[in-house]
């Protein structure tokens, strides 16, 4: 049972890592709290996190704006859009300001794993 758990964690970490390559490090710490309380069943459930982007926005946007320069904010938005698209989120492309809020879906998963 332990080996299955370890293998599962390694697999999840690999998936999360592959989807987080372009996220600036300045944005990662902004999402720890909001993502643990957004109601999604798993940290790697990016489709769920992306669907709740508007709810996360009000909590994380000020942090991202303060922690990251405009170039890194744009990179974070691009990474979020790619992550949501890869997860099968079909609710339409997030607006630029909402995308920063969605970023936590991937960021927290990487920090925890």
Explain how this protein is built:
Residues 1-109 form the CFEM domain. Keywords: Cell membrane, Disulfide bond, Glycoprotein, GPI-anchor, Heme, Iron, Lipoprotein, Membrane, Metal-binding, Secreted, Signal. It is a single chain. The protein has 113 residues and is an all-alpha fold. It has one domain (2-112). The protein is 72% helix and 0% strand. It contains eight helices and no strands. The chain has helices spanning 2-19, 25-28, 32-36, 46-51, 53-67, 70-86, 96-102, 104-112. Helix 1 crosses helix 8 (104-112) and helix 6 crosses helix 7. The chain is globular.
Primary descriptors:
secreted, 113 residues, disordered N terminus, 8 helices, disulfide bond, globular, mainly alpha
Shape summary: globular
Q: On the 0-100 scale, what is the average pLDDT?
A: 67
Order of helices and strands: HHHHHHHH
Number of strands: 0
Number of domain modules: 1
Q: Measured on Cα atoms, how large is the radius of gyration? A: 13 Å
Give helix % range: over 70%
Structural class: mainly alpha
Taking the sheet with the most strands, its summary is: none
Tally of separate helices: 8
């Amino acid at each position: 049972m332990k080996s299955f758990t370890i293998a599962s964690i390694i697999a999840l970490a690999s998936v999360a890592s592959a989807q987080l390559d372009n996220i600036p490090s300045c944005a990662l710490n902004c999402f720890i709290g909001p993502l643990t309380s957004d109601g999604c069943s798993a940290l790697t459930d990016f489709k769920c996190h992306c669907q709740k982007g508007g709810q996360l926005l009000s909590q994380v946007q000020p942090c991202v704006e303060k922690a990251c320069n405009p170039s890194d904010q744009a990179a974070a938005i691009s990474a979020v859009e790619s992550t949501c698209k890869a997860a099968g989120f079909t609710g339409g492309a997030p607006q630029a300001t909402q995308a920063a809020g969605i970023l936590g879906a991937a960021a927290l998963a990487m920090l925890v794993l």
